[in-house]
Amino acid sequence: MTSGTLSRNRKVAVAGVALSDCGRVDEATPYALHAQAARRALADSGLDRSVIDGFASAGLGTLAPIEVAEYLGLHPTWVDSTAVGGSTWEVMAAHAADAIAAGRADAVLLAYGSTARADIKARRRTANLSFGARGPLQFEVPYGHTLIAKYAMAARRHMHQYGTTLEQLAQIAVQARANAATNPGAMYRAPITVDEVLSGPMIADPFTKLHCCIRSDGGCAVLLVAEDYVPDLAKPPVWVLGSGTSVSHTTMSEWDDFTVSPAAVSGRLAFERAGVRPSEIDLAEIYDAFTYMTLVTLEDLGFCAKGEGGAFVEKGRLLRDGELPVNTDGGGLAACHPGMRGLFLLVEAVRQLRGEAGPDRQVRKPGGCLPQLAVASGTGGWFCSSGTVVLGRG
């Protein structure tokens, strides 16, 4: 096989996935976390690094992904540096899968690493209040809208329009922490209650501290390959069945409906292209910088009707052994959140489909069978963008 082979409609498999050290990582650079995750993902695949002819990365370096590729010793002939916030990695995975299917690349590595937490602790940077004051954003910045405030306003609209309650939103944080309890790599594993979520320090009304994601360090990597490589893989493949992407707005005044996220489009496209229905999905990995993100994304992906997300998240439905396991590692609310977390969603989905999550947190279907289908849906900005990927076992 040679890079750029002119074949069409090749199937695309996830060959390797891995996390770098995550959580509290004070003695590593973001480049080192990229490299650590990349080495581990390559080892997970059983392939030699020489097969990699595509590379995708964002968020680090002046000329991303060129600087990171140089650090990793890679010389790709296909690259992607798309940066659309937390959904970056699902969008990149969609781009990479399309390139591989069309014969533009054979093996694409997606890699991410961040020391967001350690940098703040060491005062190498400050926390972000906004994305800047240039371009269209200049018309909102004078009013003091922080990133969190924009999510909070959207949540309030959903509560007003559909009767969603704070207790229902708090249930999402409680169940995320319960899922994290059996994940030895999660930063926060102690159980929490709805009352503890509601009584915490106010961050942006209605969000208290536990409605918001944690801040961590960490990195991860995913290797996508053409079906030709599957016989050489160390583990059974997980197939990319379909994907969809969508963008919505940057200024809140241009957002048509605060209760609808761009996942309503990306999800529909992904499911249509995969040829599956939401009701067939066994588990979902959803970007959860805030509890409301999980709720509205569940609605927009079609797991429940618009306005019914509050009732849907009650009664333990999101737990590992619930009706629809969601964020089975604990998600950004409990496991880790080193900035753009979308690639972690793909890693966790693949591990669950392979049956590698471990005896205490592996999702099982009725009868004890492994899950067959998973969806990973990333959100960027303040519901500005969305990427959704449907994955299936071989």
Summarize the structure.
By secondary structure, the chain is of the alpha/beta class. The chain contains twelve helices and eleven strands.
Helix content: 25-40%
Q: Uncertain segments of ≥5 residues (pLDDT<50)?
A: 1-7
Strand order of the largest sheet: 3-2-4-7-1-8-11-10-9
Structural category is alpha/beta
Structural Rg: 20 Å
Number of helical runs?
12
Largest sheet: 9 strands, mixed
Domain Thiolase C-terminal: 244-393
InterPro entries: Thiolase, Thiolase-like, Thiolase_C_2
Protein name: Thiolase C-terminal domain-containing protein
Organism: Streptomyces albospinus
Q: Could you walk me through the main structural features you see in this protein, from its secondary elements to its overall organization?
A:
- This protein has 394 residues and is of the alpha/beta class.
- It is built from twelve helices and eleven strands.
- The protein has helices at 30-45, 66-72, 88-101, 116-121, 147-162, 166-180, 194-198, 263-274, 291-300, 309-312, 331-334, 342-354, and strands at residues 12-19, 54-56, 78-80, 107-114, 202-204, 207-208, 218-226, 238-247, 283-286, 373-380, 385-393.
- It has a nine-stranded mixed beta sheet with strand order 3-2-4-7-1-8-11-10-9.
- Helix 2 (66-72) links the parallel strand 2 (54-56) and strand 3.
- The chain is globular.
- Residues 1-7 have low confidence and may be disordered.
